[in-house]
Amino acid sequence: MEDHPGGAAQGGALAEALARCVGARIDAAHANPATGLVALAVYDGTRRVLGAGIGPRVVGAGILPRLPRLRAGASHPLVAAMRAHLVGRRVLAIEVRSDGIVIVAEGGDAVMVENDRGSAKVAPRLGLAAAEPGLGLAAPGLGLAAAEPGLGPAAPGLGLAAAEPGLGPAAVPEPGLGLVAPEPGSVPVAPPPRLGSSPGARLELAPGRRGEARLLDAAGHLILRWPPQGGAPPAAIAYPADPLAAGAALVEASDDAAAGQEKAALARAVKARRAALERRAEAVRGDLGRLGSVARLQKTGQLLLAQAARVPRGAAKALLDDWETGGKIEVALDPSRPAKAQAEVFFAKARRYQRGEAVMRARLADTERALSAIAALDADVAAAEARPESIEPLAQRARSLGVSRAELAGAGEPRPPGARAPGAGRPAPRRPFHAYRSASGAAILVGRGAEDNDALTTKHARPHDLWLHAKGVTGSHVVVPLAKGASCPADVLVDAATLAAHFSDARGEAVCEVSYVQRRYVRKPRGAAPGAVVFDREKVIAVRIEGDRLSRLLATKEEG
Known about the structure:
The protein has ten helices and 25 strands. It has 560 residues and is α+β, with helices and mostly antiparallel strands. The protein has a six-stranded antiparallel β-sheet, with helices on one face. Strands 18-19-21-20-22-25 form a six-stranded antiparallel β-sheet. A four-stranded antiparallel β-sheet has the order 1-2-3-4. A hairpin with a 2-residue loop joins strand 5 (91-97) and strand 6 (100-106). It is elongated. The longest helix is centred in the middle third of the chain and has 47 residues, at 243-289.
């Protein structure tokens, strides 16, 4: 659909179709800003849907056979504004103009004034009067004027104007009252207003590839313009000779264009999920590869235990005799601890690797199954038609495979030609933590290393968040984000403590004690080593490591 020269004089067919919408209640307001389709559903015993395409992908106006299947959510600014100011109110007037369509919804209650002919209900500040029976009525500002036969125009001083026969609509008597004067050649559509009704918000739709939607309040003040920078509608708009056929083409074109964008967004999200699963599988295989070091760790512990008496006190390393090969083994030591006591560190690490093998193998199997499913989905998305009925089942499959709704969001608002996406060409910033999810969906953040622990605790965690750490051993800082004043649910606490134990030197132990406090009670001493902190008001939970729980948590990892 292309723009062509034309004007409201060509909009008689559309005006005739819209005349049936006047007096109807506005039941719904929808938009797909990415395609440019704006839709208003009205009801007066029969449901009708007015649609206008303001670009960039769909252009034109008509009566839609249905609401668009693909549309923005209620949080979108244009949708939210239309629902707040239009939905639930009746259509007071519609005007088909050479530069767009104006839809006026009824506003608040009218006020009562007295004059020498009786009382009349008048909309405050707008000069619109609905006369009592027998008094006649007029509606300036809407391009309308009417009077009961034989009664003449309404009294002066009320801001009313009566149309002379054959002269067309009346003009607004005062500027700046919130409703525009009718344009020569425009096609007003408005029967006499209902008793007591007064103009409220006004929606102006300018179809065109660079058209716009403007929502104004009763006083004419701009509430919202979409797109925000405004459009550049053509000097004249060509209206359809068949509004029903034009509306059907509009809604189909919008859904097709939106489905194409959703397919592209779905394909990107699926590929990102596949890449994340491949990284996870590689990491687990690396963990399993360390199982080969169990024998070496046990051997080192035994040699250190046997030769500890020869290691000087406070040494940072030891050179041990390897009785099997006849060579030497160099071992790094903690100078603050006796060498003999450090032999247990090697034995403990070997036990952790052995005990964690079952969990790691189960996690690898789960990851490989998910990879197989996501690869099949990737192929199905590539082969799917860009139609709403084809894309939605695939999006549901993607969600079941761990693709978040945020990742599945469409391409969003179109950018100006040549504009780059925010951050285009730059890698996403690395987060100092990995995120996991409890069974209830609560986020659990786990530091990725010593310096990352500092960043997580001091820069990302808020004072009221919960902070955890495996007691008495080296390990990751764990943070549970909480709402201010909220307490951590018991199941989330156990999940977080399980992760704190797993990502510490206590990994592989059947039971581990975990300290937890509010982040406000954790502080980092000046000059302390990376990851080293002190804390007050400590509470301790002894958590029994359950393989099923740990596997479930590890499977929810969101790559940072």
